[in-house]
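Batch 3, record 17
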Amino acid sequence: MSAVSVRELRKSYGDFEAVKGISFDVKEGSFFAFLGPNGAGKSTTISILCSLLDNDSGTVEVFGKDPKDARTEVGVVFQDHMLDDKLTVRENIAFRGSMYGLTGQELKDAVDKVIQLTDATEFADRKYGKLSGGQKRRADIARALVHGPKMIILDEPTAGLDPQSRTSLWRTVLNLNRETGLTVFLTTHYMEEATDADDIVIIDHGEIVAQGRSEELKEKYCTDYIKAYPKDAESFSKILEEKGLEYTSDKGVFTIPVKTTKDSLSLLNELNEYLESFEVKMGTLDEAFIKITGGEYDE
Amino acid sequence: MNDILALVKRNCLCYFRDRASVFFSLLGVLIVILLYLIFLKDMLVDSFMNEISGMVTRESVKEYVDAWVMAGILAIVSVTTSAGSLQTMISDRVSGKDRDTMMTSLSPAKISAACVLSTFLVGQIMSLIAFVIAIGYLAMTGCEMSGTGIAQTLLLTVPASLSGAIIVYTLTCRMRSEGAFSGFSTVLGVLIGFLTGIYMPLGTMSDGMQTIGSMMPATHIAALMRQALSTEAFNKIMIGAPPETYDEIWYTMGYQIKLFGMEFSPLMSVLYVIIVTAVFFGIAVVLNKRK
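Prediction for the assembled complex:
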């Protein structure tokens, strides 16, 4: 069964079409990344999956059910912090747990378990408002897991975190996916965060513009290239033109795309005598993302 | 039920852990009492002394006016303090935090019920604090009160808080801005004291104001509380007054409400409060359904 199945989903706000008929599936137990620049329609899609927003047309199923009936099978980490500043992490999580109908020992065990799973033990009894960004995020994830959902949705969870917190948060999420079989639905505008995902869907202006595994996307959209620093720029550009090579130049630095980094060896041999120095660069997913979404890439 | 109670407890904790907010809510009540003591008291006492031509001492008139004002203040404490607790609801909505609650198993109806319940609890707790202060003050100044009267007043704080919570909740349940809400609660805090005839007897106002004031459920609660808390003191200063004068002042001071030519008995006032509150409750249900 699919954790999420979306067909021809559409949603408009007045004249503005936020989501223009997208379709995708999320396999149960997989790590799914939903990528797009700001305003691409990610949050709208998530709100519909959580039944916080009604769609105009198309079908959405979460674990084979209407999103309204699947709320308790989903845990959400919203982009903004949702817990109460004046309450401790433990109180926050316990209150949410009881709102799912957990009571007594069952509730206590559930709270202890998620605090441990998210490495939040250290600050579990501190007020949420006093925590650092990374600690808050851990508490958010613990709260999203307290009722034992089958899928966790993370809406740009690393926005505003420092690199260390980001990395350690990442490890936690990956572990949850790999070890407990939890389906992870991640939205982000950092392509690098999607590297470990089983499936990636890239959305822009409300439409799906690319989808596949990260290697597939990389192969399709990434180009490796040589950065060449020639002895004489003018003659160098002539030679490149003679050879019929594509290139771009900027202040005497030439960028020449190659199929694979290995292909650069023969080319560099040919150009050897004209070169002062060179670098061979592998294309990154981030570059692919910028290419796919037409350069609208903030941050 | 446990799920609702969890949300009620969370709302209350969020309110009471915000010490400054609790402090200013209480201060709001205390300031009304202080304003009365500093500015209004002498004026009210003077106008009374003129009215009842020297048959009683100024001291007993003072005691009476004290009891009359305290009863009125106790009737509106829950209304003005309920705003503090509803603040949590508004800021949840403005910040989008309510989405997280909506993701739980709680239905929208239960979420609203929890909101009303926590508002009621906050209003009730604040009423009890004000009750202790008011009764303490009256006892200290030697005002005559009956045990039953005090017990009745205490009991009346419950319907007062409940109707206050439901009505204020209904008025604010569609607000989507914290600015609008704080403006509303300021206006409410200022207006309610006048509309219910707490600072100035209802009978001294224009007919139009009297009608509007008499329609407020809080005015009926105030009338009931005045009857419970200040009838003894009233009788004491009315000794020897002719029955017509007694009745006239009884109505003027808002012990009993006349609305559209109908005289409200205590039971009718209680029923009126219940009916108006139920109507507001119905409106809230409809408003929440249409969301």
